[in-house]
Amino acid sequence: xxxxxxxxxxxxxxxxxxxxxxxxxxxxxxxxxxxxxxxxxxxxxxxxxxxxxxxxxxxxxxxxxxxxxxxxxxxxxxxxxxxxxxxxxxxxxxxxxxxxxxxxxxxxxxxxxxxxxxxxxxxxxxxxxxxxxxxxxxxxxxxxxxxxxxxxxxxxxxxxxxxxxxxxxxxxxxxxxxxxxxxxxxxxxxxxxxxxxxxxxxxxxxxxxxxxxxxxxxxxxxxxxxxxxxxxxxxxxxxxxxxxxxxxxxxxxxxxxxxxxxxxxxxxxxxxxxxxxxxxxxxxxxxxxxxxxxxxxxxxxxxxxxxxxxxxxxxxxxxxxxxxxx
Length: 326
Fold this sequence. Notes:
This protein is α/β, with parallel strands linked by helices and 326 residues long. Helix content is 40%, strand content 26%.
């Protein structure tokens, strides 16, 4: 709360006090106690009567505050956003558990994706997971907490083993085909070669291009000997062993080029963070912010309080706190 007028009005207090003192000197009064107090001890009325002038001064003080116009100013932002519709297509094949990242590729990919979503408050985002098959984990939504929760729940082993890049991309494109947004994007992250699925990756890329969908492809992981899942155990866990990892970077490059997107290569968590930062800048949401300012005055409340204080003084002076009883 602020005061619209300066507090120089408080200077009226010394002037009012001097005038009141001068009036008291001129005024000749005779104070007589009540008969029941003349010969007895002082009661609460005695002390309350002495405090009556304080009500008058408090009323004057509150009136001065009212003259200073206490008010509260607040601003409201109206945001018009030209949002981007983004679908994340994440590979959850067993190779994503490879331990060339700490603790593994999938854990790092999930963490960085969650951080990326946190920076996109005005966009609609969706999530597709793929291995040898693909499914929509979360349709397009503006609720960042929901999609972040779905990303955390992603696990290897929910689908048949394999890497169906074409299926993952086609499923993501299907989520965007009816989108009214002028900017539609798929971020496809994988760590292997296309070896499953009945939709060729380039066919899916052609469909994306025809629908005006831009695809950013991200290859995660290092090539060569990497500690990776070698066998699935009866309890659903994986046995790890050093394995030769291969990567089809040319396919991902072609998919990105076909859709006017871009191909990225992530060898470490830092690389992946940098890639998402670049995509964040390339697909920046256009925001128009208009600020509405409003003011609420509270002086009438102070005037009412001053009136109540004066009324209490008058009632007290001429009722229970009268100095002379008839």
